[in-house]
Amino acid sequence: MLRLDEVKTGSTGAGVDFDLLAALSNACGLAGDEDEVRQVLRQALASDACEIYTDTIGNLIVRKGNGPVRVMLCAHMDEVGLMVAGYDDNGFLRFKESGGIDPRVLPGRAVRVGRAGVPGVIGLPAGHWLDPADRDKVVPPKELLIDIGARSRDEAVAVAPPGTPVYFATRFERLSDKIVKGKALDDRVGCLVVARALLEADFRDLTLLAVFSVQEEVGFRGAQVAAFHLAPGLALAVDGTSSSDVPGVEPPDTSTHLGEGPAISLLDGSIVMHAKLREHLVALAERHGVPHQYRRLTTAGTDSGGIFLQRTGIPSCTMAVPCRYIHGPSSLANTDDIVAAVRLVGLLLESVDKGEFPV
Amino acid sequence: MNIFEELAELSRAAAIHGLEAETAALLARRWQPWLDESRSSTLGNFIGLARGTDPEPRPSVAAVAHMDAIGFMVTHVETGGFLRLSAVGGVNRRPLLGQEVEVLGRRRLVGVIGAKPPHLSTPEERKKLVPIEDLSVDLGLPEAAVRETVRPGDGVLYRQDVVALRNGRVAGRYLDDTAGLAVIGVALEELRREPHSADFYAVGTVGEESGRLSGGATAAFELRPSLAVVVEVTFGTSPGGDDPTNSFALGSGPAIGIGANCHPRLVNLFKSAADELGLATTLEVMPGGSGTDAWSMQTARGGVPTAILSVPLRYMHTPVETTSLDDIRSAGQLLAAVARKVDWTLVEALSCYDSTK
Amino acid sequence: MREILKESLRRLVTVPGPSGRESEVGRVIADLIRPFVDEVRTDALGNVIATRGAADSAAATAATSDAASPASPPRLMLSAHMDTASLIVTEVTQDGFARFALIGVYGAASLPGQAVTTPAGTVGVVGLDDGVDPKDIGPGKMHIAIGAADREAAKKLGVSPGEVFCLTRDLIDLGDTVSSPALDNRAGCAVLIETARLLQEADPAPAAAVDFVFTVQGAIAPRGARPAAFALRPSLALAVDVTPARGPGKPKTRVELGQGPAIRAKDGSYVAPVAVREQLARAAAEAGIAWQVEVSSSEDDVSDAAAVEIAGAGTLTGVVGLPARQARTAAAVVSLADLLAAARLLARVAGAP
Fold first, then answer.
1. Residues of B with CB below 8 A from A31's CB?
2. Are A12 and A61 within one domain?
3. A35 FRET partner, CA 20 to 30 A, in A354, B146, B172, B256?
4. ipTM of the complex, rounded to two decimals
5. Which domain holds residue A119?
6. Residues C80 and C53 in one domain
7. Coil, strand, or helix at residue A233?
């Protein structure tokens, strides 16, 4: 459970604000229920913002500066998880998935149920009793149940009414000097990058609009709404992206590699990135020696897909921090990639401020 | 209001996307005593307005149900005068063989989707469903007469009048979503009894079953409602193979949607209004997409707070959809009660989304 | 007239214009259409908008306005996507071959043996990997040969992950019909240009304002058309796109080559308003143009109309399909007569006599 007094910013170790990242990763926020994450970000950013507010769908909008050029940075607050959807007579909880989850990561997981973080486990039959053939089968989520120790349906309903969100019970940790582990690194690392870019920003001719969006995992919905009412001249989405640089996977299926810098996206299932904006980002990275790579996957979708078709069209691109085991209970990221991402965002803002990228 | 009669008339007028005008005209006629004005939008949405009494600018609530239904379009007329079909919307293929249909040609014709008699089909064939492109509609007319009356692109609908079953249940074609329209009718009648602060838009949308939810999105864009309630049908408990998380008993009252597509404050508002009225309700958990107009309405323009209210319905997308008249009445009363609570204080609270409060 | 159309097509089909990188084909289109319109501009996403008649002044403020109603006086929007399906390099092997993914709907079986070009001009040939079982044929089992001995050499030719190839074979002239892998949707672009030419030549000159919109990313999904429609707020928007026609074998469609434009009743994600279908049918009858109805069950038949109708408070839309055998393959064939008829139909709708 998140304690707000744990949210401090500033301890930067390897150049990364670990306190803020820990608070963000541990905070719970399902699509449509991103409150806790919103509070962490509000607390971290309110004193530095010209304007900070929540819109109708729940996006947290933080404005800094008042210049003629409007730039939107977008990172999503929601994570994939589960939602209580039913019960059985013995007090176990049935659930539905929120966002895309590989069903194989669910059995045997420790979870936290609801805002109060009631501990639960997703149990599974002991292998002893199964037919050998069945032991290898994937259990469909519909057949899985969450055990909170309740002894009756009534007790279960009282503790976890329908619609209660359920999260992986992962605690954020630093595994080594550069590698962090936590849940929801997609896209809490993006939130961190955008938050830091905002805190470090100081530009004359820009209105910097940091949008911490909602409901990205179910169709980049918050971003659509924010882009419509903010009407920026250009937008950069900072997301977490799949990094499969693990044994048994060869490029290009690895998509991205930890430690090789933020991944510039070429296209995904929702958008072909704005060519000039993408090329400009790469040119900036090369000119200033910022490590970077390309995202090789061409599927899935990000907030940019929700932004670029709003109103009369908004040049948009996605830059992502590589995360291993994305959409699973415990993902990994390299802090060098986070630092490089913050740097690259800063360079982009500076460049736009100087008029190098006409908007 | 005689809900059975309302359903029977709406069911008779219902048609596939593109042919909603008859339903829109019916709504204009039937709801006229309860509306101050009505019109159609560019894409054919029906928009009726029951004005509120607050001074302008007034908040507004849009109650939305779709007018279109699933069915088919004729792809061509074959030798012998038989018709071939293409599905419009998510047609359930299982009841098709042997089903009577209506063909909306130059005039309405009755036909049968023919099935080979058991004597002529093999055991293998009988285990599989016939793909829609292999079905044909027999109108019992000579080819020349068919070609004169029916053209490719003409609509084809299930043929099944609404019938009363026991215990206040009704069955028939297209209760998805004439049941939703009937709920709005009940609410309109209820709202007419006493003044209400906010404007109440009664909206029949087009194209929910077969498009990209443009009816809902464009209605939200045009009306800019302070909030929108989409009235739909949801899966009613029925024999065999129910998913317990997706099944609601007939008679258990309306299901209030909860999840990303449903503003949490509106969820609480519906729950408390139901408690005040002593109405039974259930919660329908939809973590992501709701498969309703609310999905596209929520992100229209700068965002619209949405809620989803559903009536349990068995055998969805078949000609014999079955629902409970009591559930429709309760849903209508609940909708009206919530609409009465809409004022600027509520709307202010909605515009700053924060589910802790 | 036929020759002019053929020339436009000849020019258009060899320009590499993959989804998201349409600027070069946009320039070629702008050059071809400029003599027939009053203004040509490009919007924020790269859509090319050529306007006949006065530009809508409200469009300039549409970026921040909340306009719900159509522009006044009424405007007609005609759209065609200018991008084609393309091959994006995902990896370059040690031996200098490019592996790729297919962007957009396209018949992968027709790729091996095709000449491909990058926007920068590097040429290559698509090959099928050795030892592939015929039923496994797909982009994952193909490669592009560019004449590079290794990765470094490939890089020098500008080919590394992220580069995009398009099928740019010269137009094959079969007399009354022509073939090119890029007919989807350069044929649509050519028809729009021809429509502009007809309107310019029409006497008396039609008064209606017409926006010819060449949209981006349409080979993947109807995208670019939506913000264009939001800015222009047309009263009627017609999308022009290639649609499959019957060929040898077991066709799934009823559309025939040589029977005129296909007025679409529905496709995988859209149902055309009856009023628009009837308006098109009437215009065709008045102009003596033969036409056919298209009722599609395919998820692959998606047009700009689906994205335009949802813009703002709703826009009336229609789809005029250009029949193509082997559509969305390298062997695509269209009939020049069908294309000319489509242009005449659109011109008639725009007010030409």
1. 259-260, 287-288
2. yes
3. B256
4. 0.90
5. 81-168
6. yes
7. coil
